[in-house]
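Hello again,

I reread your note about wanting to compare the complex against the isolated chains. To keep things tidy I'm splitting this into two emails, and this first one only covers the full assembly. Below are the input lines as submitted, including protein chains and any nucleic acid or small-molecule components. They are followed by the predicted structure of everything together. The single-chain runs will come separately.
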Amino acid sequence: MGEEISNKQVILNNYVKTSVKESDMLLRTSKIQLKIPSGCDGAVLVKNLYLSCDPFILLRIKEEHYIPPYKLDCPLIVFGVSKVLDSSLPNFKTGDLVWGHTRSEEYSLIKDPDILFKIHDKDLPLSYYTGILGMPGMTAYVGLFELCSPKKGETVYVSAASGAIGQLVGQFAKSAGCYVVGSAGSKEKVDLLKNKFGFDEAFNYKEEQDYNAALKRYFPDGIDIYFESVGGKMLEAVLSNMRHHGRVAVCGMISQYNIEQLEGVHNLLYLLTKRIRMEGFATFEHYHLYPKFLEMVVPLIKEEKITYVEDITQGIESMPGAIVGLFSGRNVGKQVVVVARE
Amino acid sequence: MGEEISNKQVILNNYVKTSVKESDMLLRTSKIQLKIPSGCDGAVLVKNLYLSCDPFILLRIKEEHYIPPYKLDCPLIVFGVSKVLDSSLPNFKTGDLVWGHTRSEEYSLIKDPDILFKIHDKDLPLSYYTGILGMPGMTAYVGLFELCSPKKGETVYVSAASGAIGQLVGQFAKSAGCYVVGSAGSKEKVDLLKNKFGFDEAFNYKEEQDYNAALKRYFPDGIDIYFESVGGKMLEAVLSNMRHHGRVAVCGMISQYNIEQLEGVHNLLYLLTKRIRMEGFATFEHYHLYPKFLEMVVPLIKEEKITYVEDITQGIESMPGAIVGLFSGRNVGKQVVVVARE
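Full-complex prediction:
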């Protein structure tokens, strides 16, 4: 029998109808044994160090079944960086650091570790494995390079551009020789995009009455690639401004996660007349590319050729607020919760 | 100086706001010399035999600029089968039969014959080069095989399935081992789909209150490939019923060409959650595949392994009515106008 200790958890209290509130989640203290129980072959027991707040969470705390909803009264399945305390699998050993699917609690028994990677390079900040070196980094890489094949001189528009994924998409696209414009929801974020992340241009979408006019201003000759994280009216404006053979990588549609009536997109006829390709993707289907991605991105980080900004809150107790903040756009950069430093 | 003779033309009288009427086009008798005038290097003079009525025409008689509108008071640029009367190009000789871009009139001086192909195989009905052996055939081929890569056992839905393109998509998909369901707008067309074109199932969309429910009935396990010719509410219902990694080849959106307010599609979030690829294409960008296409399709026709139905009207005077009929769904099969038999 392992030691039984207390385990603070963030659990889902009720399914969210429209806007998520902190009270939709509850903090609960449970107990957990620090040893894998018998009958749990294939499980890994971890201590969570960093938990990642990602927009997909918002899809799963609703009951609409676009993707399977979370279970009520349970911790949320999220990405995190964790330390292995006990393992029944030969590829994970006690003391290993890992990143991948875990849950919103201090300690997790991961019964089905299908998305769990051992961390080999410990020279870089561990929290980066919730972002630039983890799922968001892979998402930026796959969406931009695998789906959109950017060519030198092409124009790229990134919405939600200061977030975990957007900031990387913009920098990857710049490194591919593209002209890159991003949008975000505050002056501070726009400054970040232009002055820190090296976007060619950036604008505050909240100050634009007419997205169509804004995009025409920044892309007088049209958009070749759109990295889509917003949906709705923004997508409609982008389609109006796309060039022939434009490509849209659908990574998210955050504007649509939190509203009762989804917005219609009225100009899909442009897909036909401009021969546009629009494609959704799920990063978990592309993890075979992870080693290739690390080969590209680790040197960029070590040589300081890429900038990465995190917004870190302290303690598992801060997680409900951090999740709610994703929607109001409160976070600047990748939203991470530190649960423990080691 | 060549002989000057009368040339009946169908010209565009005014741009269409909502539904096209016969009176939006006018019949006019002009004059033409049956010789290429000096200063028209690169031109070909043809006598039009068959003129093709295709849904894209409806996009160009409106002024919305999804694609460049036709010029007022001019014959419409359409596909046709023609006989060369005079040529300034070495690859076309007097007496050659050709298919490609011509105009809605008896004789056309084609100044810029960028889409014009010599007809080599004359064993087959000449009118077929406006359909199964021409642009619609290539469109079915490119959309299905190049964009959607059908695999044996996959499910395919074809809307506007009894039209020039739809009937071919269905038969090509059957030949690839797919389960194929089509929809059309009358009992007669549905019978054609099931009994003549060999679709596994077919339904009359006009009798369905709820497209979503209809598709669930025919595709209980979902749709892998959608050959899109309709748009709007039908597209929305299809996205709800698509399987993961579904593919949508956007060939047309005929429901949207003739209405004032385009319909919104509200569930594009499915592109993300089901990793759907949706892609518009233009057949004219794929004509390098035409010889490969002919290699496939000509034997199918000669061995009677494929069925092709045309709806032929007589005389250039019938063209405005035939174009209007495309929208009310009056035609059964490919709509062709015979202008002259030789």
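For quick reference: Chain B is about 25% helix and 30% strand.

B.
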